[in-house]
Design brief:
Elements lengths: L1 E13 H5 L4 H4 L10 E13 L2 E5 L9 H5 L9 H7 L9 E3 L5 H4 L3 E3 L6 E3 L5 E4 L1 H8 L11 H9 L3 E3 L7 E2 L7 E5 L6 E8 L2 E5 L22 H17 L3 E3 L8 E7 L2 E8 L1 H5 L2
Parallel strand pairs: 3-4, 4-7, 7-8, 12-13
Antiparallel strand pairs: 1-2, 2-3, 5-6, 9-10, 10-11, 11-12, 13-14, 14-15
Length: about 290
């Protein structure tokens, strides 16, 4: 197995929305804001080369939306999904599986593109199976008013219409062992219903792809919960269990949205679980 971090670009979101009830004077110590109160965030995906499978976890925001839509999010940087796939020596047609942690636009928008004459929306990865779960799919395709702006049908429905959609079964409790993609999955419901958090065994380490359960190192203290979360009190409970599990099992956290940090470890302190060390992916696993 070989794992590659795959940057797809950066975008900006309001710092207050990203940290909920936490005062700016506290959260901007780790995530400084610009003059418009916007913080920069990564859309870092993960590519797993495992035998004859090439698995992509999340796909970033994509490029098919209108200028008006992108004007809200201030896309920046030189990274792109296709460009960085090519730098790694891969082509998108080689992707066999796309695992979507959840279907918010910044996690799945890169899955779908316009055809050449902009008359039809098609999956970017024409040879891949796209993995979601039936609970989250229903949640996303019949959205509540709070999340409707994050679940865009153009990012979602073409996956089903082309017959490339697959569902992962959710167990009654805990992890789903021996998933079809070879890694364990933790289901979390605080941010959105049935978000899937992969736990991947790699070179004697367990890497947790944190997605929106833990967007950045700045979100490690328990009260630092996003205003976007649909069930913030549930997020508190899920985070507490998750953070203690990370420390107790010596997991590495892989950040999708932290603009500065790719990986970190955690530690127990008198104030609760806190940041231990941060690393680049290559520092831990080599280039």
């Amino acid at each position: 197995m070989k794992i590659y971090p795959l940057n797809t670009g950066n975008f900006k979101l309001d710092g207050g929305a990203m940290f909920g009830v936490v005062p700016k004077s506290l959260w901007e110590r780790t995530n400084p804001a610009d003059a418009n109160n916007l913080c920069n965030w990564s859309m870092r995906c993960m590519l797993i080369e495992d035998g004859d499978r090439l698995i992509l976890i999340d796909t970033g925001i994509g490029d098919k939306q209108s200028d008006k839509f992108f004007g809200h999010y201030y896309l920046n940087g030189d990274d792109s999904l296709n460009g960085n796939l090519a730098k790694l020596g891969f082509h998108r047609d080689e992707i066999t599986d796309v695992f979507l942690t959840h279907l918010h636009f910044d996690h799945c928008g890169g899955s779908i593109e316009w055809n050449n004459d902009r008359t039809m929306l098609l999956p970017v990865f024409k040879n891949a199976r796209f993995w979601s779960n039936d609970g989250h799919w229903k949640w996303a395709t019949e959205p509540n008013s709070r999340e409707k702006a994050s679940f865009l049908k153009e990012n979602i429905m073409p996956i089903q219409e082309t017959g490339q959609l697959e569902f992962i079964h959710r167990p009654d409790t805990g992890f789903l062992k021996q998933s079809p993609l070879g890694f364990d999955i933790l289901f979390a419901d605080g941010h959105t219903d049935a978000q899937m958090i992969p736990h991947i065994q790699y070179k004697d380490k367990t890497i947790v792809f944190a997605a929106d359960l833990l967007p950045s190192t700045g979100h490690i203290p328990l009260p630092y919960v996003m205003g976007y979360d649909t069930r913030p009190l549930l997020t508190l409970d899920e985070k507490a269990t998750f953070l203690n599990s990370v420390v107790d099992n010596d997991y590495l956290i892989f950040f999708e949205h932290d603009h500065k940090n790719e990986l970190c470890t955690l530690k127990h302190t008198e104030k609760g679980v806190r940041l231990d060390e941060t690393f680049s992916f290559n520092e831990v696993f080599g280039g």
